[in-house]
Here is the input.
Amino acid sequence: MANKASFKRARPAAPNQSVLFNWVKELVELTETFPEFRRFGTAGDAAGRQWIIKTLQGLGIENITEQTYPVTVRHYHQWQLSVGGQEIECFFMNGAEFTDANGVEGELVYIGDKVDSEQDLTGKIVLFDLKSGPAMKGGAFSHVSEYTYDPQGILPESTVGGTGGPAPSNFPSPYYEAARQGAVGFVGIFANRPSNVDTFFADPTGMVQTRIPGLFLKDSSGKALLEQLREQPAGLRGKITLLGEAEESISGNIIVHVPGQKSEAMLVNTHHDAGWSGAVQDASGVAVVMGLAAFYSQFPSNYIQKDLYFVFNGCHYNWNYPFGANQFADMNPEIMQRLVLCFGVEHIGKRFIGVDGKMVDTGEVEPRFIWAPRNKMLFNAAVSAVENNDLHSTAITKPGAIPLYGETQSYFLGGIPCFSIMSMPEYLFFAEDTIDKVAEDQLVPVMTTVLDIMDAAMYMPKTWITHIDK
Here is the structure.
């Protein structure tokens, strides 16, 4: 069979699967040597940034910049829930108020999964059922997607977010309401969550602004506590102890600049911080963006028709989401004025689901979404790239059907055309985000999909890219 005609230039070799996955493993292994993992502003965060810089330098990449900025960090050292002199297994609520060494005490009151605005919670410790998050059923893909690539027909029988979703669907607003009504503490129970976990450390999707002390309980611990409360409905008291401190620290972004022939610029970003080992969120994204930076750094400059920036943002887990991307924008206004197209790459994971208290590997990739600009040429380029790279279990969303998440969100809201590719697995914000969850065989297809779209946009003028015709 004759080869198809092509006018594309020959490409240098891009990093292969072994190289990309080894980067993921190295960053995860480094992260797991720190008690606070890669949480922003901590020692693990600083070590992660230096690892990225050192690894990029080892590839012979030039024009690497670290831009740091101040952050306020909350360190949680000790957390405890005691009821009737017995300690109950729990986890701290990210952002919640600290106590002193004596903790806070109060009568336990169970309010189910809703807060009654008329209920007096003064002096009480609230027990609240967290609903499983929005684990979207596969049948919804046709309603929220403009295009799906599912050659094996997996998506209709699949879900997004496993069985429990990545975050509770009725949180954190009840925390604030309970505080407003006088509660001295808040305990969120992951009621009926099949994976039976409590280690929820979220970005602004599920963190709280400091009001009162707060803890999480896994489903089994919550059921045992509620049974104890039913047996002694009057006067059962509890104590929350949540020790730590806030301090001023620094985090930062790592920027690789690959100079182009024209002033127009394209940017690819991800984030490097993580609440836990952060294998899927977001060592996987870091590896792919490093691979793209390594690939384009090999080209002679006359091939690069737009200035390229590859950015590894910090502080995804801070307020003013996405904090690191917003810091980049504030610190680099000249680059922002020249941006014509942005790409966000995050969460390249396997589909694990909670079953009988465990996370079970389904053998599938977690379905991923691509948010694309409302531009026919870019949309067609994305479809072509997805199919040519066999990026199966992928859906391009209908405009406005699902809010655009991730590191390009604020750029998109600012009117810059953006692509964002990510999945939302059940384990995303939990300690279960470990190296076994990474979809190793999907790292290269994601990288080359982004690469193909970038190549298509490389020779499009700004007026074409920014034109809305879809």
